[in-house]
Amino acid sequence: MTVTARTPRLIIVRHGQTEWSKSGQYTSYTDLPLTDYGVHQMRATGRMLVGYGVTNLVKPAELKVIISSPRKRALQTRDLLLEALPVSQKMGIRMEVDEDVREWEYGNYEGMLTEDIKAERKKKGLKGQDDWTIWEFGCENGETADNVTERVDRLIAKIRRYHKKALDNNEFCDIMVIGHGHILRCLAARWVGKSINTNPQFMLDAGGVGVLSYQHHNIDEPAIYLTGAFLVPVEEEGESL
Ligand SMILES: O=C(COP(=O)(O)O)[C@@H](O)[C@H](O)[C@H](O)[C@H](O)COP(=O)(O)O
C-alpha cells in the first residue's frame, strides 16, 4: 500500500525574547542576543516542536530545510530549537541563512517605540501621525511595504520549489523559517496572496510558532492553519501510538 506523504508545511518561528522585543523597540539590524528568558523559551519550545514523541509537531526526518535570518537572535533560536536532537538527526536537515528573512529595515525608527515614531512624524508634519502603521507608511530611510513584499515573495517562491518537488515525489517536506515579528507576518499574508499595504492583523509574539500549508494537498491552494490539529494529524491514525 502506498502511503501518501503529509502535505508539505512551513513552520514559522519568531526568535525568542530579546531586551527590545520585551520593551517593544523596533529591532532590525541591531544584533541583540536572546535574554535568559528567551533562551529558556526556545529550549522549551524546541522540546515541544521537534522530535519523535507523540506530542512533537515536527519529526526530524521530515524537517528538510531550516531557513534562518542572519541575525544572532534567529541563529541562537535555531540552535536552541535543535539542541536536544542527536547530531545524527540534525545532519539530515539542510541549514540555510537567507537575507530575505531579515527583519523589515526600520531606517530612522530602529530602536524606537511605536508611540515615539508617531510623535516624531507629528513633529515633522509627515503623513500618518496618529494613525501611522508600518504597513501603510513604511519607515523613513527604511523599507516600504513594496520593498518587503518583493523579498518575501522571492522567499516564498524558493519554499514553493522545495514543496512542489516533495509533492511531485510523494515525499514529506516540512520547512522551518526562523525570523522576526514583522517579516513573518508579511510572509503569512503573502503566503495566501494578501497585500501587506494594510495591517494583515496577525499576531506573533517573540518565541511564537505558526504553521502554513496547502489545502487539498494542492500547491496552488496555500493556506494558514488556524488550529493545532496538526499535532495529531489524521494521516497518523493508523500508526501505533
Ligand atoms: O522590532 C520588531 C520585530 O523585530 P524582532 O524583535 O526581531 O522580531 C517589532 O515587531 C517591534 O517589536 C515592534 O515594537 C512591535 O511590532 C510593536 O508594534 P505595535 O504593537 O503594532 O505597536
From TrEMBL:
Residues where substrate binds: R73, E103, W104, E105, Y106
Q: Which InterPro entries match?
A: His_Pase_superF_clade-1, His_PPase_superfam, PGM_Phosphatase
Q: Give the GO terms filed under biological process for this record.
A: ribose phosphate biosynthetic process
Superkingdom of source: Eukaryota
Q: Which residues form the active site?
A: H15 (tele-phosphohistidine intermediate), E103 (proton donor/acceptor)
One of the entry's Gene Ontology molecular-function terms is: sedoheptulose-bisphosphatase activity
Q: Which PANTHER family does the entry mention?
A: BROAD-SPECIFICITY PHOSPHATASE YOR283W-RELATED, SEDOHEPTULOSE 1,7-BISPHOSPHATASE
Q: What is this protein called?
A: Phosphoglycerate mutase
Q: Which organism is it from?
A: Eeniella nana (Yeast)
Q: What is the lineage of its organism?
A: Eukaryota, Fungi, Dikarya, Ascomycota, Saccharomycotina
